[in-house]
Design a protein that fits this description.
396 residues, mainly alpha, 3 domains, two-stranded antiparallel sheet, two-stranded antiparallel ribbon, DNA_brk_join_enz, DNA recombination
Length: 396
């Protein structure tokens, strides 16, 4: 049983396999409140309303796991945990892998690991494919270039843009790559050799603010409207902290802040950042320090410590919606005609540095663009002082 519970105070029952000091956790789909679980016997207590049925299912799962291990031993195969998981979930018939079944198992693992935003994106694509396919089973061998072309037409008929369609196709491609890596399907079934997602890349309009527009934004009078005050603070905080995104701001704690620096790991890439606290950032921090909540979080977004991943994702989704609505009001007040959203702060930071004459290589490093080969070639050239100085030009 997993230690963390969901919003209904129920815990996930998982199958745990240990081998060579490594472990694999597989969700069974069963949930139980702690009072109904026998920790010693690893089964449902008799007073649980469906104890007999659920315990039979647990016995079936255990027997299946033991049989798979026995099959590997009989065949003299020194199996990996991933190989065990593949056979447990899908058997040994690689030609009949149901995409929906495999994908749902991946999403459940994402949810167990707390990656709720990524899980939601995948679930959205699964649901979209189910509507398009209109059948409960979709074998991975059925997905070829023609299938993807027709799915693209379907998405466009429902108002899909190149960007939205690209997200769907990348999700499908990721699942195919995962299935191939786990030896569930053969490489020749991979449809993205011919179907190119790159064709969907259009010229995205990035609504970055200029330096003068940022100044106009800073000077907006919020008239004690707390929603507008928060939105203005969040945007400027992001702008002056190298484009810190909303998810990282949401999780930022007072323990991440010293007198002169903010140190945190970006949730998306796990890259470590150490950022000098500039005067505008210090002013915002002072505001929230004076209005401190009962939590260790800097910003009043997460309401209490120990929120579950689902609760955090829901809170993020709700607050981000209010934030973006408030940004549109602030932009209008500032006389800015651009579509200002939370992510515009990051684009604006980069564009304003460029406007000040800072080189692309330094900008890439301040943003943490480690995947850009050109940037990576220059990273070693710059110390932390150079990056601090690059951001400080925004105050000139």
């Amino acid at each position: 049983m997993k230690n963390k519970s969901n919003a209904e105070d129920k815990h996930s029952i998982v199958l745990q396999i240990l081998k060579d000091r490594q472990k694999k956790v597989i969700a069974t789909g069963l949930l139980v409140k702690k009072i109904f679980w026998d920790e010693k016997e690893h089964c449902f207590k008799t007073r649980h309303p469906n104890s007999m049925q659920n315990n039979r299912l647990l016995d079936t799962i255990k027997i299946k796991a033991r049989n798979i291990i026995s099959e590997f031993e009989i065949d003299d195969i020194d199996f990996t945990l991933n190989e065990f998981e593949n056979r447990f979930r899908f058997g040994s018939k690689r030609s009949k892998i149901n995409l929906f079944e495999f994908w749902n198992s991946v999403v459940r693992d994402l949810e167990l690991s707390g990656r709720m935003g990524y899980a939601r994106t995948n679930r959205d694509t699964i649901n979209s494919l189910k509507i398009f396919h209109n059948r409960p089973v979709l074998y991975m061998r059925e997905i070829n270039t023609t299938f993807l072309d027709k799915y693209e037409v379907f998405l466009r008929s429902r108002g899909g843009s190149n960007g939205g369609i690209s997200v769907r196709m990348r999700s499908i491609r990721t699942i195919f790559n995962l299935a191939i890596r786990r030896d569930l399907i053969k490489q020749n079934l991979y449809p993205f050799h011919k179907y190119k997602i790159s064709k969907l890349r259009g010229k995205r309009i990035k609504h970055a603010l200029t330096i003068s527009e940022v100044e106009s934004f800073k000077n907006v009078d919020c008239k004690e409207d707390i929603q507008l005050i928060h939105a203005k603070n969040y945007f400027l905080f992001s702008f002056y902290t190298r484009g810190m995104n909303f998810a990282d701001m949401m999780r930022l704690k007072w323990s991440d802040i010293s007198k002169k620096r903010i140190t945190y790991a970006r949730a998306k890439t796990q890259g470590n950042f150490s950022i000098k606290i500039l005067p505008p950032v210090k002013e915002i921090l002072n505001f929230y320090n004076q209005n401190r909540t009962d939590t260790n979080y800097v910003f009043p977004i997460l309401l209490y410590e120990g929120m579950t991943p689902i609760q955090i994702e829901n809170r993020k989704h709700k607050t981000l919606g209010h934030y973006n609505k408030s940004l549109k009001i602030l932009a209008k007040k500032a006389g800015i005609a651009k579509n200002v959203t939370s992510y515009v702060a990051r684009h604006s930071f980069a564009m304003c540095l460029r406007e000040k004459g800072i080189g692309i290589d330094v900008i890439g490093e301040t943003l943490g663009h480690k995947s850009v080969l050109t940037t990576k070639a220059y990273v070693r050239e710059f110390g932390i002082e150079v990056l601090d100085e690059a951001v400080e030009v925004l105050l000139w």
